Amino acid sequence: xxxxxxxxxxxxxxxxxxxxxxxxxxxxxxxxxxxxxxxxxxxxxxxxxxxxxxxxxxxxxxxxxxxxxxxxxxxxxxxxxxxxxxxxxxxxxxxxxxxxxxxxxxxxxxxxxxxxxxxxxxxxxxxxxxxxxxxxxxxxxxxxxxxxxxxxxxxxxxxxxxxxxxxxxxxxxxxxxxxxxxxxxxxxxxxxxxxxxxxxxxxxxxxxxxxxxxxxxxxxxxxxxxxxxxxxxxxxxxxxxxxxxxxxxxxxxxxxxxxxxxxxxxxxxxxxxxxxxxxxxxxxxxxxxxxxxxxxxxxxxxxxxxxxxxxxxxxxxxxxxxxxxxxxxxxxxxxxxxxxxxxxxxxxxxxxxxxxxxxxxxxxxxxxxxxxxxxxxxxxxxxxxxxxxxxxxxxxxxxxxxxxxxxxxxxxxxxxxxxxxxxxxxxxxxxxxxxxxxxxxxxxxxxxx
Length: 449
Known about the structure:
Blueprint (H helix, E strand, L loop, with lengths): L1 H21 L4 H19 L3 H6 L10 E6 L4 E6 L2 E9 L3 E5 L40 H9 L12 E8 L2 E7 L9 E2 L4 H14 L24 H5 L16 H8 L3 H6 L15 H12 L5 H13 L8 E2 L13 E3 L1 H12 L3 E2 L2 E2 L3 H7 L15 E2 L13 E5 L3 E6 L4 E7 L9 H10 L4
Antiparallel strand pairs: 1-2, 2-3, 3-4, 5-6, 5-15, 7-9, 8-9, 10-11, 12-13, 13-14, 14-15
Helix pairs in contact: 2-7, 4-13, 5-9, 5-10
């Protein structure tokens, strides 16, 4: 018995040491991800804790978190085995922000001034229900089969699509939602937010308030080899700055999103690893650095907050959209924009029409062309905070397709040659039952040229 107890004690010690070495350092990130997800999903889209845990947080390791919601206090908190409690607070108009123990929740804050689109037009150019429009060249039976086939059958959890919206020639030709979701459901776009960030720079460029081909306006870089990095290099993810983006482990990206107070500063402080425009590397840190640069273009925080909405988001009637902030008050333009699937499709429509929104040129045509032009060293896969199909990633979709892409399978596909915008929102990108290329192929094939 004594030998057994000693052996058992040894196993416990070894297990504790293994846990401490492999898992404990991740607990802060696990509870941080969970608290932020719970707070945003609950307070922005009014989802229950149970639904968020079963869907959004149904990710390896994240399921270890224990979550609570305080509706009166407007916050969510998460722990892992009772360790590493993290809290995310909600503020109406700003969404949820993951905070640390030093954050002063009592300090005053500003809200963006919003303008709701008011007209008598039907969706997508207004917020009234669209009228039924039938195109003789659209096989609606085939289209319905393609859209229906992108969703799970009852009881399944494979494809995990939440919403699909298809616009053709400015008309809604298909729309479907998973159980528990509808046209008013706000869904996190994750990295599709990067394309929103790009559009903000596009408006500044149109207003001649920024020259993206000049060195980035960052004082901390002026005495080293980073001083030659341009805003264009950053928009193209081609700055050469050191970065690691790997969501399977602790890395620059996860530490930034779930620990940093000033997310843009994380990338700003990284050294140059390559010469600009010689080494493409996808970096959420780069986009948050761009958001920090954008803040520097305005004299006040209020002007900065208002610009994102007045310049693009509210201008095209994406009134459901909320872009969340980090603790420093900078928009998390890499990852945290929430909107309905319909409103995400409006953003695609803006780019489909080369920056024109029902007669008003919101972005220059040249900016949209710039956005959809492959950056050096990306092998045709990336433009300016948009993904491209120029390299043929989706072989059954046209090569002129460019798209917003987000974690867990968010997509706004823009296909100019077909006058088509396709939105798919979900919680699984490459599961065994969902094939993006096949989905695009089936939708596209329902439209006869």
